UniProtKB/TrEMBL annotation:
Pfam families: PseudoU_synth_1. It comes from Roseivirga thermotolerans. This is tRNA pseudouridine synthase A. Homodimer. Belongs to the tRNA pseudouridine synthase TruA family. Residues 8-103, 140-242 form the Pseudouridine synthase I TruA alpha/beta domain. It is an enzyme of class 5 (isomerase). InterPro entries: PsdUridine_synth_cat_dom_sf, PsdUridine_synth_TruA, PsdUridine_synth_TruA_a/b_dom, PsdUridine_synth_TruA_C, TruA/RsuA/RluB/E/F_N.
Length: 247
């Protein structure tokens, strides 16, 4: 039987989502927890990677098991053995061919910035005190919409067949005392959102014009874009699937 796990995590204590040698990962913690509960080695596949220090309000991973343990009991038991910075929201049965990564139709991220010093947001939001023209940042963000090549915002050494993504939403807005960037797309390249945020902040400081930003997209060259924003302000927040994969 195949299941989808819906979960969240605070990424500060982890070297990203993906299991790797000599580094602590979210995937490793969950796999070890499932293996302990199910009594058999269990491997999970996530909807995508998050880098070291990046958080998730909503992540999805699939796994297979022959256990007859009801999904709600499995989620309960898994939460009991996982550390406090990882939480399972649901365990849902899906079709045998459902895939957490390849069946995802839309993914979404939020990036949080606070501009007044706040000790309670430390490690959860990027403290950026310089004045920003948010209207200008939104004008630039609008240029991201649609299907185009985002190589300028991708990690240089990354194994992908192409750099095209279709962006459905890219918007800056204020939420309480924070400035938030919400971006939704069919897929994201490694390091893409943090590179976008770092470059859009330069637009907001008027170090780059809208024309400069458009030229950076067209350049397909990571060295032309801005410095990546810090990981602790970034949250994977949305992964959507077609309804037919759920049982």
């Amino acid at each position: 039987m195949r299941y989808f796990l819906e979960l969240s995590y605070h990424g500060a204590n982890y070297h990203g989502w993906q299991r790797q040698q000599n580094a602590h990962s979210v995937q490793q913690e969950i796999e070890e927890g499932l293996t302990r509960i199910l009594g058999q080695e269990t491997v999970i596949t996530g909807s995508g990677r998050t880098d070291a220090g990046v958080h998730a309000h909503f992540q999805v991973a699939h796994f297979d098991t022959s256990s007859q343990l009801p999904p709600d009991q499995l989620a309960y038991k898994l939460n009991a053995v996982l550390p406090d910075d990882i939480a399972i929201a649901a365990c849902r049965p899906v079709r045998e061919d459902a895939h957490a990564r390849f069946d995802a139709e839309v993914r979404g991220y939020h990036y949080f910035i606070h501009q007044k010093k706040n000790p309670f947001l430390r490690g959860q939001s990027y403290f950026y005190s310089r004045p920003l023209d948010v209207d200008l940042m939104n004008e630039a963000a609008h240029k991201l919409l649609g299907r185009q090549d985002f190589e300028s915002f991708s990690r240089v050494k990354t194994e992908v067949n192409h750099f095209e993504c279709e962006v459905f939403k890219a918007l800056w807005y204020f939420q309480n005392d924070q400035l938030v960037f919400n971006v939704r797309a069919n897929r994201f390249l490694r390091g893409m959102v943090r590179a976008l945020v770092g470059t859009l902040l330069e637009v907001g400081r008027k170090k780059l014009t809208i024309e400069d930003f458009v030229s950076i997209i067209a350049a397909k060259n990571r060295t032309k874009a801005g410095k990546a924003a810090p990981p602790h302000g970034l949250y994977l927040s949305e992964v959507n699937y077609p309804n037919h994969i759920y049982l």
